[in-house]
Amino acid sequence: MLHHTSEAQVIIRFVPGITFLLEGIQKFLHPDDLGVGRFIAIGISRAGFWAPFVAVVEIASGVLLTIGLFTRMAAIPLLNDMAVAFVYTKWPLLVHKGFFPMFHEYRTDFAMTGLLIYLLINGSGKRSQGKIHHTR
Q1: 8 A C-beta contact, residue 34 and residue 93
Q2: 11 contact partners, CB below 8 Å, separation of at least 6
């Protein structure tokens, strides 16, 4: 009987890893819409510092998740990223429009947060740089 946990964990790492990697890059490519301009629009103070900082964290953590190196540690700043995003973008929707409109906007964030929590608890799996490096 084949055991597919390792293959599934590759997918579970890959989805948030690539997503955060690309979102971080886009904060630099489109700063008015996704970087500093977005941070200013949602009310984050010192947006000129925080937007590039968050972008670098997303890029670095996204790469680490994708290759499966320091997976648990990489998940922590991304979970913080998701929490801040919730407070600044989804909480106001919840307060002003209610649960279902908020959850509609939060659905992707909810899935990403669930994947990150899984990775924080379970780590990278057998098919990862962390496991390959550790077994040498």
Answers
A1: no
A2: none
Give the HSE-up count for residue 8: Cα atoms under 13 Å, Cβ half-sphere.
8
> In sequence order, what are the residues at sequence separation of 6 or more whose Cβ sits closer than 8 angstroms to the Cβ of residue 14?
65, 66
Structure tokens at 136: 């040498």
Does the pTM of the predicted model rise above 0.85?
yes
Rounded CA-CA distance 42/1 in Å is 51
The 10s digit of each residue's pLDDT in 1-35 is: 345 567 888 999 999 999 999 999 999 999 999 99
CA angle 47, 53, 59 (to 5 degrees): 130
Cα gap 51→49, rounded to integer Å: 6
* pLDDT score of 134 more than 70: no
Q: Looking at this protein, which amino acid is placed at residue 65?
A: L
Token pair for residue 59?
């890029």
For residue 108, pLDDT over 50 is answered with yes
CA atoms within 13 A on the CB side of 26: 10
Mean pLDDT along residues 63-85: 96
